[in-house]
Amino acid sequence: MSSKAPIHLVSVVGTRPNFVKMSALVSRLRETPRFRLTLLHTRQHYDESLSEIFFDQLELPVPDVRLEIPRGSHAGQTADTMREFDSALDGLPETAAVIVVGDVNSTLAAALVAVKRGLRVAHVEAGLRSFNWSMPEEINRVITDRISDFLFTPSEDADQNLLREGIPTERIHRIGNVMIDTLLSHREKARHCRSAEKLGLGKGAYAVVTLHRQENVDHPEILWGLARAPIETSRRLPVIFPIHPRTRKRLAEYKLWSALEDATGVQVIEPMGYLEFLDLVADSRLVLTDSGGLQEETTVLGVPCLTLRGETERPITVSHGSNQVVGVEEAKILAALDSALAEQPGEVAVPPLWDGQAADRVVKVLERVLT
Ligand code: UD1
After folding, report:
1. Catalytic annotation on 212?
2. Which residues pair with 172 in a beta bridge?
3. Block means of pLDDT (10 residues each) for the chain, length 371 residues?
4. Among 104, 217, 243, which residue has the most ligand 1 atoms within 8 Å of its CB, making it the best to mutate?
């Protein structure tokens, strides 16, 4: 390769949160003449509502490569993604680094393939830890970090986690939060969606609920309590519940679906596009969720967030933001809900470097080290 030839990088996305996190970075990398970027979609998420609409709204380019992975267990999905990604790399120009983001099965699969081929791995959103080994995402994060050459972290706690695990300091680059880059650059456009108005809701007068984590929705006894949360919340204010396909399936399987449908104050709707959902959350009174990304987004939007889990890998959203970790028991959720509703949402301090410039920082590091 001549020193002037563009450096080839591969960015891997597979699921809804990956698209949001990779959007700003893909656009910065495409603007940088030193790099030639291949965007690869593993299609871990294949539904239009979880995938294609995000490409349109986030102005992500059409992927250069799309894998076809059959549905399957976690291990099956990871193995199939590895096999397919390995073959896809055979057909691409010599690659200087593979960029992965977040903690989903696609992320781990692509990182493992890259490291076994002797390629450098850049992990964006490195260092987050829930310390809950029953979460598939925790396994994915820890292993991906261990085999990455560039660890791009969102916060100081993430740096500390990596240092404690013996990752050399020169591999760790604190760059801020790429998901917030996307939020800040789409906030104005999202306002035009008028999501609340279209759902017949007043600004600041409704709650948004999302649930999808395997450790929550795949256990009938936990999901039972969690399904009560939107129903009980709707006795206090209207609730919008855009539902993930996994959760829809489980609610039906565990015979909880009709209780939700019968609750007149709960609108259960299909998963929303990025812009519509951002606008809906920004105008809401509060959010109840088990999502990781939403804890960060509500922090920047200043919307109170009740996290329906036993812990968070994003403690900075609690220390700086509007997040509270309330667990999965109905009584505790409702107590937290009532105290959150009794208080007027105050100003929150946005964490350092969550300023819309995180993708630029990633590109600068890659330019410095790879050229
Ligand atoms: C995955 C990620 C999770 C992330 C979430 C965002 C892992 C381990 N989990 O969870 O970290 O927060 O995405 O949504 O990677 N399904 C569809 N249509 C799709 C995709 C999935 O119907 O487009 C169904 C699948 O058939 C499966 C279920 O939803 O039954 C779960 O899908 P999967 O991709 O395994 O995990 P998620 O729960 O979406």
Report:
1. yes
2. 151
3. 81 97 97 97 94 94 95 95 98 98 98 98 98 96 98 98 98 98 98 97 97 95 94 97 96 94 95 97 98 97 97 96 94 96 87 98 97 87
4. 104
